[in-house]
Hints:
Blueprint: E1 2-4, H1 5-8, E2 12-15, E3 18-29, E4 34-40, E5 49-53, E6 58-62, E7 67-70, H2 74-80, E8 82-84, H3 91-101, E9 151-153, E10 165-168, E11 171-182, E12 188-194, E13 203-206, E14 211-215, E15 220-223, H4 227-232, H5 244-253
Parallel strand pairs: 2-7, 10-15
Antiparallel strand pairs: 1-11, 2-3, 3-4, 3-9, 4-5, 5-8, 6-7, 10-11, 11-12, 12-13, 14-15
Amino acid sequence: MLYLASTLENYNIQAVDGELGKVKDLYFDDNKWTIRYLVADTRKWLPGKKVVVSPSGVEMVNTEEQVVHVKDKKEDIRDNATLEEKQEFSYDKEVELSDTFGWKQYWSGEFLWGGYLTPLDPMEEPVRAAEPVSTEEPPINDNVHGSNHKLRSIENIKGEFQHGIVHGDNGKIGYIKDIIIDDTTWKIRYFIVDTSEWSTNERVLLSPDWLQSVDWVDNDFYIDLKLETIEDGPNYKKEQEVTQELEEEVYRKYRKEPYWKQ
């Protein structure tokens, strides 16, 4: 199953003994393009703070009730997984969170979740990374093209007013309207890109795995596809279910190797 980021942002985060708040944002790393933390809106009970939860701390996602159930108590999360509103992650903070809650150290192995394929794989003794991965945001004038791996906000790259612009080989493709997330691995599978300014395909699905480079200052995303290829590719209808058939068509039309065959 695949989640829309915009849909997840309407879900409540529920601890074992009470509600933490709605999902306010999602943090992903720009190396493996995977959601690493859910951010709860805690203004009602922790003004000026933000609470984060790793997908490896999620027990289940109830799509019918729109609730994300986490494994820990509300007080433990409040006391140990809280940051100031504008505080950035540090390596030490991520290690502290992992040690406190048993969250997987995604940076300490070759797989998507460190030594694991998914955030909910059975936990063994975690392996500590020898060198920390920087998770601090760059200064506003620092032009980063993916050379550093950082945690970034979904809210900064998708939406009507603040979004990433996707460029092809011969022009602007469109802007990132929403994000599609794999519910098993929490990997970002697709950008939903609005191409209505120039194409008869109002929306298309493009994988972040196809990106050649990213300018994180100007939010410009560069991909090796021509506008003619996008125009000839499959259209994505609003709130359309992403089936295996649709995914196969997307990869076939764009001549990309499917991720499930890699």
